[in-house]
Design a protein that fits this description.
single chain; 502 residues; alpha+beta; six-stranded mixed sheet; three-stranded mixed sheet
């Protein structure tokens, strides 16, 4: 019977395995290990929450795994690597555009009536003149807003594109379960830049005890927002690099927080009075793969951790075989006598110096013996005996490793084709596998990311007329496309010129 104590004991054993591998992987190169004892002590001193799994350990496991990186790259490429577009909330060139504008005006007036701000005597149903005037106004505002959006996302990052920022974010999210963006604002408190922050350098602080009044935007119609106030417990974050602590506040937190100490001040003047060389903390946007037991995210592959470690050990065993192989392909036996005592250490030395390693792969062992007598009965015999049956003919644990790779792939719910394995696939099965991955894996992840961008960033920018939408890969079958165009041209739906454009 499984008990909570047994579950906790199993988790502790898993953590022990993790720590053992981390120590072995990092002790040889301390310069490449940013999260050492000093860094851990700095996080503890800052009061940071301990993550379920050490983020740097997870990064090292991915670097040394033969199955994780291809799954992570498949996620980053297919979910975040196809670009983005902006969809219009109202297409002002469509036939129903004016009716949608009229509906928007009605919704705004109904909301104003509920808030008791609707002017006395004003009807909730707009007139044709009001709809026409509002249509012209909104159409011009949408053009200006689109220019703002294009300008922001074209220069959202300092030294890379927004698509590259998304790919880095996805890699961090799938490797450590967490990803972070630093959000920078200009002097008018408008969004200015998005900065990638390595997830292994950041820790969460506990939720603040006192709730903070936060102002957010909520839609009252497709083209208008209303201001909503609520009280929420906010969270601060701390980043440690070279034992130096830098604090951040949550995205949308209106408080003034010290960048160097994490203390909350009433205003910037109070912050400068306490420490003149200090500055206000910037905001951090936290992405996470939800975990029911921790505010940190947990990577989706952590359940296959033992398979990842086992495959790594298997690779090391097979690699060391070439350095330590000591079974010769054959032995030349000289019989009819005895081996002297002095021959034994010579044989041992020969095996150690002349048989081990890939450079001595085809050397043979010659054993000599003195004759037992001087007559014919003491004549020595020479026998050539193959020893290939005692040699390892192929890599060990191949079936075990293949099953481990499949386990890791199933944790990501990815078919083999997307992990770089093209065997056992034909056109029909390949299309079916790609369609499954697109519908069941990639598109839900895109939708979740798009929701966050629209709800957080675009709402903060006051964007009313456009929605952020991730692009999907364009897949075309030339044969089916040709057949379809021929039929449409034949029945007169398309002209030949329009068919060529398709």
């Amino acid at each position: 019977m499984t008990t909570p104590d047994a579950i906790h004991a199993a988790d502790e054993r898993l953590q022990t395995i993790l720590k053992a591998h981390v120590v072995g992987a990092t002790v040889q190169d301390p310069a490449s290990r940013p999260a050492g004892e000093d860094t851990a002590s700095a996080f503890t001193s800052a009061g940071a929450l301990i993550p379920p799994y050490d983020p740097e350990t997870l990064c090292l496991l991915v670097e040394h795994s033969n199955s994780l990186r291809q799954n992570v790259d498949a996620y980053a490429t297919n979910i975040d690597g196809n670009g983005y577009r902006f969809d219009a909330v109202i297409d002002f060139d469509a036939e129903d555009a004016r009716s949608k504008v009229a509906d928007a005006i009605t919704l705004e007036r109904l909301a104003a009536r509920e808030a008791r701000t609707l002017p006395e005597g004003m009807s909730t149903t707009p007139s044709a003149e009001e709809v026409s005037a509002r249509f012209t106004e909104l159409r011009q505002a949408a053009r200006v807003e689109r220019a703002r959006l294009d300008a922001f996302f074209d220069f959202a990052c300092f030294d890379h594109s927004f698509v590259d920022l998304r790919r880095r974010t996805r890699q961090d999210l799938e490797v450590t379960g967490n990803a972070f963006w630093e959000v920078l604002r200009d002097g008018k408190a408008d969004l200015a830049r998005l900065v990638y922050v390595p997830s292994y350098t950041v820790r969460l602080l506990p939720l603040d005890r006192e709730a903070v009044e936060v102002t957010e935007r909520a839609r009252v119609s497709p083209v208008s927002f209303d201001t909503v106030r609520s009280r929420r417990r906010m969270r601060r974050y701390v980043q440690v690099q070279s034992t130096e602590c830098v604090y951040f506040k949550s995205f949308g937190d209106p408080r003034v927080v010290s960048r160097s100490t994490g203390r909350v001040f009433d205003d910037i003047a109070a912050l400068k009075a306490a420490k003149p060389d200090d500055g206000p903390a910037t905001e951090l946007l936290h992405f996470a793969i939800h975990s029911p037991r921790s505010p940190y995210g947990v990577p989706r592959w952590v359940g296959t951790l033992l398979s990842v470690l086992g495959s790594r050990q298997m690779e090391e065993v097979n690699f060391l075989y070439f350095e330590n192989k000591s079974v010769p392909p054959m032995a030349l036996l000289v019989s009819g006598g005895r081996i002297s005592e002095a021959s034994v250490p010579r044989i041992e030395r020969f095996i150690e110096e002349n048989l081990k390693g890939k450079a001595n792969f085809h050397k043979i062992l010659i054993l000599e013996a003195d004759g037992a007598g001087t007559g014919d009965g003491g004549r020595a015999k020479i026998e050539l005996r193959p020893l290939t049956d005692a040699q390892q003919q192929d890599a060990l644990f191949q079936v075990y490793d293949e099953r481990n790779i499949d386990k890791v792939g199933s944790a990501f719910r990815l078919p083999r084709l997307l992990r770089g394995e093209s065997k056992d696939f034909n056109r029909a099965t390949a299309e079916s596998a790609l369609r499954f991955a697109e519908d069941q894996v990639f598109q839900p992840e895109r939708d979740e990311f798009d929701f966050l961008i629209n709800r957080k960033l675009l709402a903060d920018m006051g964007i009313r007329f456009w929605r952020f939408r991730s692009q999907t890969p364009v897949t075309r079958d030339p044969e089916r496309m040709t057949e379809m165009v021929e039929r449409l041209v034949r029945v007169g739906v398309l002209t030949p010129e329009e068919g060529r454009l398709l």
